[in-house]
Amino acid sequence: MRYSEMFLPTVREVPSDAEVISHQLMIRAGMIRKLTSGIYSYLPLGYRVIRKLEQIIREEMNKAGAQEVFMSMVQPAELWQESGRWIHYGKELLRFRDRHDHEYCLGPTHEEVITSLVRNDIKTYRQLPRNLYQIQTKFRDEVRPRFGVMRCREFGMKDAYSFDVDEEGAEKSYEKMFNAYNNIFRRCGLKFRPVEADSGSIGGKYSHEFMVMADSGEDAMAFCEKCSYAANLEKAEVSSPERKETLEQDWLPLEEVLTPDVRTIEEVSGFLKVDPQNIVKTLIFSGDGKPYAVLIRGDKDINEIKVRNYLNIAELELASDEMIKDVTGAPRGFAGPVKIKIPVLIDYSVMGMVNFVTGANKEDAHFKNVNMGRDFKAEAFADFRVVTENDQCPRCGGDIKLARGIEVGHVFKLGTKYSKAMKAVFLDKDGQEKIMIMGCYGIGIGRTVAAAIEQNNDANGIVWPMPLAPYQVIITPVNVNEASLTETAESLYQAMTAEGIDVIYDDRDERAGVKFKDADLIGIPLRITVGRKDLAEGRVELKIRKTGEVRLCPLDDIVKQVKEMIRQDMDFNIS
RNA sequence: CGGGGCGUAGCGCAGCCUGGUAGCGCGCCUGCUUUGGGAGCAGGAUGUCGAGUGUUCAAAUCACUCCGCCCCGACCA
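^ inputs. structure came back:
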């Protein structure tokens, strides 16, 4: 492609509304433009990267035995009513009516559609297993779109769905996708890791998220330094402690103390001169409308997802002031487990604590020397805590470390959640009707591209890994008004194009500096500079974007060399 | 949904408080010079000042309403 003919509007200034580096660079490099909040247009350069990624995904999915389909983005309400998600999905599901007043939604995902497709045409175990995937635009009406293409409302996604006759088969399907995902992200040249994850509202038994390591990532994860354990912070387990009993002779008499307007752990700690480790925090939650108290050591944080999962309820939120007043008889800040009449869940961190401080369920009062067993019953002990750095690994006891990442892929074991609700059944060998076992597997396309930029950039712009690079080579004649330079550049361009290399020929009448800056910004891995001095000696300059390394190459060898370098960089990630 | 901020040329912003000629930088167009890391000089084009209503002789500026966008929080595959 000739640069002079391209629609490639690069921008020198950093756009004011772009927070993260990938967003800034995608706009500056002329990859994307915002249409409206959370909705973007991809320009030619951006779309080429998307296509490169999609190609890698297609290759690996096909290799894993999946088949590509293409399903509508517009979906009828009936299907969602059948699965039950018309009610449960919430406001992220964009709903609308057509001229006949029929209800529809824009698909945020396609479990309903694929299940309806499969149940109509798969009737016997002979037609199973199957794995179908598509690359489609999804729409989720995000509360707050942000970070450019990383968290937007309309986005490209590869979603695959597997259907199996039994658990064992489903396990295999899952495994295949897990491996395919590893291949995909490795081929993209990304530093990533699969982590155990909570399966959220899509449902299902367990799942892995594929996280691209990035400090700007929205997700936090915990991983073990010693073994391979890695989990989303939402899911990361705390190893259950040895059962510890406290000794009755250590218990001091319960004492009520006046604590006027002292509410938070810091305030209590400061006022009573007690370490947060000797205070027990009591949080009142509303779970599907009913109150629960959760106890945790003062210096720790509660992981609401663990509480929700433990109670097996749909919604959990901190209780309102009214509910707190109602169940504790006191305003917010003075709740405690003593004589409270609602279920009390206790985090492991409280185990073994003696003579601790809690709220007194009375305005401006706390208890000192509270002891479990005497002052309240110890029931429902479990892990309700957010993992912290240097906790012990639940698998091997090693040190837990925290890191941030961008979730680019997610593999789920769905089980029969949708097949059951929507009656996706088949006849087995014995003529018995059985429910299909499903799995679903997503990859965020735009997000993966953004993640790649987060990991591969420098002060001058993007540094594309070869497999994702929109173009592999850019040829830059230093001055297009010198015929010898343009003739050489032109013939190199022709030769490389003929060799199947993705190449930009920067034939613009611009100063060399401008072209260099643009080439760096848009991140082309290899740059060939055709200048007068080197050309006089029959050579051109080859600059490697990633390392900054510059080589002088004889003209008659450059195409071969470039081809070899590309081959190596396309291959280096494949094991 | 709660809190905060912004909306003026393609982009980034000033002007608004204290009402009266709409400005700066970058970009864009023309010409000359320049030509290995975002050139110099000269000339030029470009605005329903987010929309509406009101106050006023007069509104980018004051008031009210609406819309859009961004940030923090809550929420979340």
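The domain at 9-237+402-453 of chain A is CATH 3.30.930.10 (BirA Bifunctional Protein; domain 2). The CA atoms of residues 530 and 540 of chain A lie 5 Å apart.
thumbs up if we can close this ticket
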